[in-house]
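## retry 2 of 3
previous attempt timed out at serialization; input unchanged, resubmitting
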Amino acid sequence: LGLRQIDRQERLIQNLLMGHRLRFAEGSLESQRLEPLRLIERLLRERGGVGHRGCAFALNGGAGLGVFADTEALQTIVENLLEIALRYGAETVHVGLDREDENWVKLSVRDDGQGFEPERAEEIFGPFRRAAPDVRGTGLGLPLSRSLAEAMGGTLAGVSAGLGRGAEFTLRLRAADMKGSEDDSA
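## retry succeeded, writing output
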């Protein structure tokens, strides 16, 4: 329990610092070419198994895909989405990384947790909003994550078929050609 509390506090501080950084960067971040697969694999390894309520994580796709992104901002978004899945009772989280078309790469985080009413899909991105009032949290993870996505020229959206039916969050980032470039992501 103590380690979980420390993790929560660390995430809160990271979110506050990232929000502060975004505010002083006047809404834009320094995006660079990076291959997100190793970053996502590392974040999933850190959360795997009993340490996080026994939730199972699966990763599909991503090999050779590149995006234009800020490494710290991307890490913050992925950490927030994984934490939200855990907080809302997910037993299984599927992370997909695919080329949507020639311009966009799509990262999706789909879970089998509590979900939310479909009509609240935009509301939950407001500051201090949560999908359920009985779930602990600050209500800052999704709004910050969306702001970070937009500052990198991307989008972040969420959908759910309803309460008890899980949720899926989709981050879209500009695609980057990784041929001849170095992997700066991890």
